[in-house]
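Protein modeling request. Please complete all fields; requests missing the sequence field cannot be processed.
Requester role: graduate student
Desired output: 3D structure, token encoding
Chains: 1
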Amino acid sequence: MKKSKLIVALSLVSMMLLSACSTGGTATTPDPEPNTPAEEEPAEEPAGEEEKFVIRAGIGLNDQHPQFKGLEVMKEYVEKESNGRIEMQLFHSSQLGDDIQMMEALQMGSQEVTCPSTAPITSIDNRFMIFDLPFLFPTEEVASDLLDGDLGQELLDGLSDHGLIGLAYWENGYRHLTNSVREVKSPADMEGLKIRTMENEVHLDFFRALGANPTPMPFGELFTAMQTGVVDGQENPVPTIALQNYPEVQDYTTLTGHVYSPFVLLMSKIFWDKLPAELQTVVEDGAILARDEQRRINREYTEELKGDLVDAGMTVTELTTEELKAFQDATKPTVEKFKSQIGEDYVNQVLEEIENLSGN
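Delivered output (360 residues):
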């Protein structure tokens, strides 16, 4: 009996101890109040990614031309130096439109980069007509020295008022005449030839002065126009003549060198203003690096491809000093006519600088 009472007493003591332990656990860690969520440590926010940019660069020439090679150099540089924050997408052969359409796309912000000749830019700033005056630059070196100096930079700076950023002058080169009718060695041989030109008043005027029938049209339509006889010929630098396969539809090339034609690498100001300062510097540096390489390639191609024109069956005519002078004399009225439209002060400054750079 005593033993039974002892067992009962021990059981009661055990139950009391268990109850005390249970009550102590809830007291030290109280349950949260109903409908009150437990506080959590604030999550650490991930570091924000840097903004990335896409540059769509379009040109009218094909992917074998030195101009496209220049874009490839620029693409490699800016993508590497921006640590992938800039991607350049390259479009050739007028995939994004002709020069004027692409310039307008830059102004509207629907395209980022293009690289036209100076001729289409004359609709924005008359002073760019200076580069269309015939027989202006005696050598490529004099041309690039002037373009890279203060007078050339002055024109690039003025483009920002028209929604464009002028990054650099690249090289198109000396323009030469081709046709499918006859060999041209004098202005008299130009009589009546239908020659495609750019939509540019100066070009139209001096081809009329030579007796030709200038016909402006977009570059992308030119090959078919020559093939179908809409025009008899055209004028462009040697790399364009060779790499656009013009020997297939043209029989004669005359190395007139009547105009030294720069390209102008343009960027949309709308896009430019979105770029952080450090990426603007990367783009500027890439444009200059590519400019120097593009000029080197262009001059190398020009010499090599003259032989290719002959190999392709073209008659290639190099003018004598006297023959060249006949072309120069015939086009002098064009220079005088457009001086006032371009700005006489600017023309005189350029002519003086050319003389200084030529060592005269």
